[in-house]
């Protein structure tokens, strides 16, 4: 009934001696409930989020559906343990391309232990988290039935420079997604994935509008997950772009203050994606004419 996800690109992954998430055939994702405060904090967030009536429905769709908690056998066979049960946002996809982007220029929350803060600071300083306000945590890009997926090692991705991030975001929506960042991306799917009324940019702008006003939560170490499929786009259909916020183990009360940390990272990501769309060949030609 339960199996290890094929399309996880970041976070704790199940392996020998390590407990990780599971999925089932009904479209549900089972995340092991962490034994420290992180597990209870994520449950508390989902519980409170579902009860807050002032969160509009068009914003709720950016959060995975939450089904509560359930005791199931751990992925390593060590016995039953509690899991968060959520919507599996890639379950309906055949060959999904997805990218996990950790938001904010600061990934540690104010009441964290000094050891935890130092650990986060080290990673924030060694990645694009500080200069860009976000970092790519992991991704996979589907090429075709012959080439399959490009899913680079996490250590490689965390070593990305600003230029690498820019190329990876282009490569994510390209048809020539070879297993490196060298070949110039053709951005063949940029218009249909990043652009349009239902594309990534439009969805991120909706989130931005909400984050410019919401003071209920501060989303530390939360990620934006982008998912789409190339095959429908190749046939002239919508690639079914999905944008979700995930990972809420470090969400704290907003206490009436805007979440500038998340909002800053979101604005930075929006700028990167806007630049890609503005510099597509046909747009560049139009700009030069004007």
Automatic annotation (TrEMBL):
EC number: 2.7.1.140, 2.7.1.151
Gene Ontology MF term list: ATP binding; inositol tetrakisphosphate kinase activity; inositol-1,4,5-trisphosphate 3-kinase activity
Pfam family, one: IPK
EC class: transferase
Keywords annotated in UniProt: ATP-binding, Kinase, Nucleotide-binding, Transferase
Sequence intervals crossing the membrane: none
Record GO cellular component, one term: cytoplasm
UniProt xrefs under SUPFAM superfamilies: SAICAR synthase-like (SSF56104)
Annotated Gene3D superfamilies: Inositol polyphosphate kinase
Example GO biological process: inositol phosphate biosynthetic process
Reaction equations catalysed: 1D-myo-inositol 1,3,4,6-tetrakisphosphate + ATP = 1D-myo-inositol 1,3,4,5,6-pentakisphosphate + ADP + H(+); 1D-myo-inositol 1,4,5-trisphosphate + 2 ATP = 1D-myo-inositol 1,3,4,5,6-pentakisphosphate + 2 ADP + 2 H(+)
Manganese is among the record's keywords: no
Cited InterPro entries: IPK, IPK_sf
Reported function: Inositol phosphate kinase with a broad substrate specificity.
Family in the record: Belongs to the inositol phosphokinase (IPK) family.
Name of this chain's protein: Inositol polyphosphate multikinase
Organism: Cannabis sativa (Hemp)
């Amino acid at each position: 009934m339960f199996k290890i996800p094929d399309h996880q690109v970041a976070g704790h992954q199940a392996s020998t001696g390590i407990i990780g998430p599971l999925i089932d055939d009904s479209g549900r994702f089972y995340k092991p409930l962490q034994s420290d405060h992180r597990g209870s904090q994520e449950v508390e967030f989902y519980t409170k989020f579902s009860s807050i009536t002032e969160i509009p429905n068009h914003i709720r769709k950016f959060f995975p559906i939450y089904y509560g908690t359930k005791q199931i056998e751990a992925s390593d066979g060590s016995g039953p343990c509690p899991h968060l049960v959520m919507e599996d946002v890639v379950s309906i996809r055949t060959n999904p391309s997805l990218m996990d982007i950790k938001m904010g220029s600061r990934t540690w929350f104010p009441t964290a232990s000094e050891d935890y803060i130092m650990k986060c600071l080290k990673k924030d300083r060694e990645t694009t988290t500080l200069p860009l306000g976000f970092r790519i945590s992991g991704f996979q890009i589907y090429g075709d039935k012959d080439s399959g997926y490009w899913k680079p090692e996490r250590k490689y991705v965390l070593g990305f420079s600003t230029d690498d991030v820019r190329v990876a975001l282009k490569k994510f929506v390209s048809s020539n997604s070879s297993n490196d960042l060298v070949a110039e991306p053709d951005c063949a799917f940029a218009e249909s994935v990043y652009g349009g009324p239902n594309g990534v940019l439009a969805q991120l702008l909706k989130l931005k509008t909400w984050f410019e006003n919401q003071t209920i939560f501060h989303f530390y170490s939360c990620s934006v997950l982008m998912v789409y499929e190339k095959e429908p786009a190749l046939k002239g259909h919508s690639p079914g772009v999905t944008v979700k916020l995930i990972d809420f183990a470090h969400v704290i009360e907003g206490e009436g203050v805007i979440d500038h940390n998340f909002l800053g990272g979101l604005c930075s990501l929006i700028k990167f994606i806007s630049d890609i769309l503005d510099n597509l060949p046909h747009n560049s030609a139009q700009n030069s004419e004007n």
